[in-house]
Amino acid sequence: MSRILVLVRHGQSEWNLKNLFTGWKDPDLSEKGLEEAISAGKKLKAAGLKFDIAFTSALQRAQHTCQHILDEMGQPKLEIIKNQALNERDYGDLSGLNKDDARKKWGEEQVHIWRRSYDVPPPGGESLRDTGARVWPYYLHNIQPHVLREETVLVAAHGNSLRALIMALEGLSGEEIVKRELATGVPMIYELNADSTIASKKVLE
C-alpha cells in the first residue's frame, strides 16, 4: 500500500475568466473550468488511482471540480468533506474587483505586493501566511492522518490554499512559495513516507 495525496486546483472559474479577484466570493466553474475538471478525472483514472476520501473547500468552484473528478473516476458517491479552512485566500476589499481596475486605484506596485508577497494582506483580507495559519492545522489534524493510514486522498481546493499546503509539504520558504504557479485543473500526486516526508511527486500535465 502507498500513501497518496492528490492536490488539484479547481478548474477555471467564471471570475478567473473575467480577470476578477475572487477570494471567498463564490462563482462557479466556466465552461473551460468544467472541461479541466473532467480532464483531471480522466488523467487520474488513467493513472490507476482510486480514492478513499476527498476534501474540498466551502466554495462551489472547488466542490464542483471535486465532484466532476470523482464522477469521471467512477466514484460519484465517495465521501467528500467540505471545510472553509481550505477556502481561497480572502482578498478583502479587492474581492470582486477587476485586477486592472485595482491597479489603477492602488497602483501596479501595491497590487503586486498584495498578490505576490507572503505576509502583506490586502485591505480587509488575508496574506498567504494568514491563509496557511488555517490550512496547516486542518491538514495536520484532518487530512494527513488519512494519508498516513495508507489511504489515497483527494484535495480539490484553490491556488493559495494549495500553495500554503505545498509550502508545508515541500518545506519551502515564503519567498519560494509565492513564485510557485499552480495551473487550474492539473493534478499533483504526492506519495508520502511513513514519517510524512515526500517520497515522490508527479504532476499530470
UniProtKB/TrEMBL annotation:
Keywords: Gluconeogenesis, Glycolysis, Isomerase
Keyword Isomerase: yes
Reactions performed catalytically: (2R)-2-phosphoglycerate = (2R)-3-phosphoglycerate
SMART domains: PGAM
EC number: 5.4.2.11
UniProt xrefs under Gene3D superfamilies: Phosphoglycerate mutase-like
Matches recorded under Pfam families: His_Phos_1
Coiled-coil ranges from the UniProt annotation: none
InterPro entries to which the protein is assigned, alphabetical: His_Pase_superF_clade-1, His_PPase_superfam, PG/BPGM_mutase_AS, Phosphogly_mut1
Catalytic residues, chain numbering: 10, 88
Enzyme class: isomerase
Record-level GO BP terms: gluconeogenesis; glycolytic process
Family: Belongs to the phosphoglycerate mutase family. BPG-dependent PGAM subfamily.
HAMAP family: PGAM_GpmA
Summary of subunit composition and partner proteins: Homodimer.
The name this protein goes by in its record: 2,3-bisphosphoglycerate-dependent phosphoglycerate mutase
